[in-house]
Batch of 3 targets.
Target 1
Amino acid sequence: MPPPDAPVVDASRLAMLLALLVGTSQMSTSTYVSSMPALPAALDTDAATVQLTLTLFLAGSALGSLIWGSLADRFGRRPVLFAWFGLFILATLACALLPAISWLIAGRFLQAVGSSVSWVLSRAVVRDLYRRDEAARVLALIATAFAIAPVIGPVIGGHIATWFGWRWTFAFIGIVAGAIARVVPRLLPETLNQPAPTATDPRRIATNFATLLRHRAVIGYCGAMGSSMAEMFAFVTAGPFVLMGIVGVSAEGYGWLSAIVALAFMLGSRLSALSVRRLGHAREIVFGIAIQVLAGTSLALALAAVVPLAGVTGIVATIGPAALWLIGVAFLRTAAAAGAVEPFGHMAGAASSASNFLQMAVDTLGSLTVSLLEDGTAVPLAAAMLGAATLTAVSFYVVVRPRRERARAGA
């Protein structure tokens, strides 16, 4: 049931519009990752430094999350949307032109500050319009639609990098963002019923975030989201080097394999959207955690059994657990996102910012850990999967305490 005075918006159309925003941001990474193994030679650097273009992208997303939610509560959702498009497009085109790895890292950081708007704004808009279980359903629809981006992004990026060079991947992203900027703002209505004039006051921001960070559900749900997504970003960080550097897959081949993994996420998102009304958000999370534990264990056992990481065997041993993991992430992520912001309808933008910041902070740590442990093998990736599954389970069962949450929600 929508909150009182919420504008009437068709859920499917809303999900598609918000998916375009999130998908555009997501393509800034999914289209680029196929180029990463070529950058050490192109920019006279090493693999660990190149991986910082992803790790600091996540850090920039976390920082941006602290900014945009309060601005959206103060000025409305649409003004923030316009600001996002301007910053994101300029930073993306700058990445296409910057001459050195240090400048590219800085450009990616600025691009990330802009890209963080998409999920912050999406969660705030959905919270403006829907309550918890319905919000989880709409967020799952968004995830289903935006999963098209990681399906086609690596494929397109792999071919662009091979035919034209890595800089053109950023030019492509900028062109796509410019096209979407001409469509979405005209169709997405303002959903904030009553702007908060003091939302950008530093004292108000500090008070809001202190309130949010004292709430067990916020910490637990965001910890579960962050640790489950951290492994996904660990795969994005290490996967190209494992599959192309160890297994021997080409850039185009990596794009197609990434598309398979993304299709698994799309499948999980679709199943989550269909099942959340029947299962409820807590059972969705439990199911997602179970799948992630199975995926992490599968990759660890494959490595323990010394599965040769070459040819078809190496592809199956790496891609299979990653695809299974993302099915689990799809079930967990949207339900946890809805649970994190549901109690804070009076400051949905700030709640969305805080949840996105906490999630991205954990994602950054996951990506950074894999970069620091880079040793030319798949062991850091397997360790990240098992560690992330453990942290996800602890965040939900120990911090959120699902039985107490169900009692509070009347489930």
Target 2
Amino acid sequence: MRENVKWRRILLSLRNYIVFFLLIAFIITCCMYLFLRTLQQTLGISYTEENIRAAAALTFANVIFLSFLCTVIDTVRRRLMVDRPVRRIVEGAEKLMKGDFSARIKPFRSIGGESGFDMIIDCFNRMAEELSGVETLRTDFIANVSHELKTPLSVIQNYSTMLQSPELSDGQRLDYAKAITEQSRRLADLVTNILKLNRLENQKIYPAAHKYDLGEQLAECLLRFEGIWEKKKIAIDTDIEDAVFVESDDELLSLVWNNLFSNALKFTEAGGTVSLSLTSEGDLAVVKVSDTGCGISQEVGRHIFEKFYQGDTSRATQGNGLGLALVRRVMDIVGGDISVESKVGKGSTFLVKIRRTTDG
């Protein structure tokens, strides 16, 4: 391989020399012909055969020397200005192909300032940085998914094994069957949320926007959880302003409200209160979902919208840490904003802002 590269370089140098030789020979011949012809016509000088031979020999020697000099200069230029940056780029690309996403290429600064190779190197380094981040997310995602799948599967497996015992009472069999059903539902919800999040993150989503009454949608979504708040005896406090219209994708926004209501009811103890308010502030529709639950710390608040992050591990069996990641992604798609205010032991308030439209 190295021998082939060496011969290719020799042939390239020889080709360059021949090209320069022919080019310089042509230029010098034309220049000498014009010079001698003009001199002869102006001064009336005649040239002997001896004069012409001497001039031809000197000119030929000059052509050989100048061709060699230009070849050397061009070879050095190519080695420094072309071969070296190309070699750096190739080495970096080979590392990237082998899975080394930490590969970076040192910028090549030419004498005349930034060259075209520097632009390529800059794009390569940014690409490698993005790939590194994607690879980290992918690795973490796979690790988290594996963990989240393993937990309910282990529970299902254990209860299924215990159900095979002939000594179980009817009450125990019913309890174990309920546990299997609950974990199966959790597993199905996990897969559904993973598919939803993957679609929202990896596809170009164009919201199917249309104008509708946001208050009506909020009320409809909240009523779907009526069985939960009645079972836990949670008080529901609503303050929904009339005729607040938005022009957005109602299907995507329903994901937001369902997740926020679900979390509020999940983290609110029996006898607590969940509040919902909708107001218009300027050209914005502002939705607040508050609860009197356990609240979250500032540290948890900084990570709460990350995938699989669960601030309250005591309730980890009730969720999969994907709900708020879905909410954040939907907000990015529809051009809205979401934030959280919370105090440990006092509860949390999620604040959603969406651009509203004129009434009608």
Target 3
Amino acid sequence: MKVGIYTLGCKVNAYESEYVVDLLRKHNYDICDFNDICDIYIINTCTVTNTSDIKSKKIIRQARRRNKDALIIAFGCFTQANPKLDMDEIDILLGNKDKSKIIDYIEEYFKNKNKLIKVYNDLGTNFEDMYIENFGTRTRAFVKIQDGCENYCSYCIIPFVRGKCRSKEFDKTIKEITSLVNNGFYEVVLTGIHTGNYGVDINTNLCSLIKEIVKIKGLKRLRISSIEITELNDEILEVIKDNNIVVNHLHVPIQAASDKVLEIMNRKYNLQHFKDKIKYIKEIKKDISITTDIIVGHPGEDDVTFENSINDIKEIGFSKLHVFPYSRREGTKSSSMEQIDERTKKERTKKLLMLSRELEISYMKSFLNKELEVLVEVNKDNYSVGHTTNYLQVKINEPIKHNKFVNVRITDIDYPYCIGEIINK
């Protein structure tokens, strides 16, 4: 049977989809392009914003229109948040639990031809074990080490759809990463819903895990998908400082560059703490790239607050901003607050996106005429594209083998690329 799978949302979803693909292949299902005429369509949904909800429903409906007789499966955060979702297109509706049982559910459906709804209010305290030995055609492999979040930021629905913090067993994590490296993956990304909280439930921590991972023979790069400023303690910064396997890039969500808004958001730090920590990181790790998430138009963000935020963002010196207009999520504290109009949010979003481009280009220019190592990810007839350890996207004007490291000199900027010239072959 032909199966097409579509993934919305975060790196955790990408990992879980890859796990499902691996399961299906092992049971002799034929994995096809989602846009093909398939017998089964699987949609891994997202609910982080209203736009995510709309897109999740849109993709589900597209699948049904493509083949009215296909089996349609939807799971993930959107379906977890909407267990009574009234969509005729869905035949099997799961939430964020029992994705590892998808083969059983498919077989049950074809046996009985009855719609299945398996969404649980209690997601449990155990980590749903998933294990991947290969990660498709990607160069960079994701490994999900953690699930759930208990921060309950005022704007965020994710703790309600992902449940309590729970972690992958330490030894199983090391085994999985070792297997991926042995299968040719030089770069691994640790991902989770609250990655920095890894180990809180199993008597360990992220720092201990990283110290063990960097010992794995053959691993060249280790990334952390995202980490909170409050979790960048002295111990973990010491590891980042002294180990070349840990990449020269950190994604640290600030969400708001305003003490007033941070307090309303129920974030666990103030602006000065964030500034001081980033300044220290830049002192101990030369040329590090610090990227961030920022929410625009959260309740409490007035014009003065927003304009001051721009100055503070410039002062911190991020190399890129991931900008998200605030999206009202029913059931969160922020949803009951006075809302900012959509036009204002749109205007502020545009300003921050322009600022992000300025910051990116400024950071890219700082590497002109410098030598960097690139891991090639895209190979075309007359050019290649890859990333450096500090996550610069480099275009090389000649074909280079996929998954190969090359040393380049940055000769020009052609946004969003740095242009690299090979200095050894």
